[in-house]
Design a protein that fits this description.
Layout (H helix, E strand, L loop, with lengths): L1 E9 L3 H8 L12 E6 L4 E8 L2 E13 L3 E6 L4 E12 L2 E11 L3 H8 L2 H20 L16
Antiparallel strand pairs: 1-7, 2-3, 3-4, 4-5, 5-6, 6-7
């Protein structure tokens, strides 16, 4: 299993950063490889991505969501992966957003991509893009403040 961890400090309150991250369908505005995200219900998403010219679709389930703290997910189809984004108040108007992705590359191309750091570089780029996106806006475009408790399994 390959793990990617990236973080970025954004000059907005933790609530603003978290609220924007809950707007999954807007991810293509700052995630370069994401073509679309469709939110099917409160905990299920359908993703279309295009990485190095290869299009993929997969479904994901939000496994935990605590307002202003964390959002965790796992794939339910496609490449096996799971991740978490956490939000840490540094100052009233400064937040650290930390991203972690655990992925199990399956195909030869996915394994090569992992070895050359494609996922890590994309995560770093997307975190920088999120910083620019939210700081330029100054406010979130929407919010979902519901909670998804962690499954005790």
């Amino acid at each position: 299993m390959a793990t990617t961890e990236k973080s970025v400090d954004v000059n907005v309150p933790v609530r603003t950063a978290y609220n924007q991250w809950t707007q999954f369908e807007e991810f293509p505005q700052f995630m370069s490889d994401v073509e679309s995200v469709e939110q099917l219900d409160a905990t299920h998403l359908h993703w279309r991505v295009k990485i190095a010219g290869v299009e993929r679709e997969f479904d994901a389930e939000i496994t935990e969501q605590l307002p202003d703290q964390r959002i965790a997910w796992r794939s339910t189809s496609g490449v096996g992966h799971a991740g978490v984004v956490t939000f840490h108040k540094l100052e009233d108007a400064k937040t650290r957003v930390m991203f972690q992705l655990d992925m199990s590359p399956e195909t030869f191309a996915e394994k090569v991509g992992d070895k050359v750091g494609i996922v890590s570089k994309a995560a770093e780029r997307d975190m920088k893009n999120f910083k620019e996106f939210i700081e330029m806006r100054g406010t979130e475009s929407g919010a979902w403040r519901g909670e998804v408790p962690q499954d005790p399994r």
